[in-house]
Backbone:
């Protein structure tokens, strides 16, 4: 009786030497999203963060164009919208707005929003 070679690879399902990784076709749509409606595959967890980032980007563009006070207000409003989204959305849909606990996330975003808007109005107009 011969002992199996400890260095030889076991055979896969199709008889070739190697290790089976379980990637063989196990049926229609195995390992893919086949059979799932396209609307069910779209990740919705990105939209809350994208809304906030779009608002912040719009505020920065306005600042770059010279209306810095309005740009700061837009940026602060975008952060406040993010805080409202974090409060309103369930945990699984909050996506990347969810960093810590809900209370922490909301307090940080609202704190930043209020601070940015308050500083925008606290800075006096410059001389022209």
Residues:
């Amino acid at each position: 009786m011969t002992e199996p070679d400890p260095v030889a690879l076991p055979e896969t399902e199709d008889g070739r030497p190697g290790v089976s990784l379980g990637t063989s076709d196990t049926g229609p749509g195995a390992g893919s999203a086949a059979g799932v409606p396209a609307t069910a595959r779209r990740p919705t967890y990105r939209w809350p963060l994208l809304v906030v980032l779009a608002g912040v980007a719009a505020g920065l563009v306005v600042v770059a164009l010279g209306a810095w006070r309005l740009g700061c207000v837009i940026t602060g409003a975008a952060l406040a919208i993010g805080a409202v989204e974090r409060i309103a959305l369930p945990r699984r849909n909050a996506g990347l707005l969810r960093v810590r606990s809900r209370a922490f996330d909301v307090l940080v975003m609202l704190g930043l929003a209020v601070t940015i808007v308050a500083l925008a109005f606290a800075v006096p107009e410059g001389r022209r």
User: Anything to note?
Assistant: The longest helix spans residues 68-88. The chain has a mean pLDDT of 80.
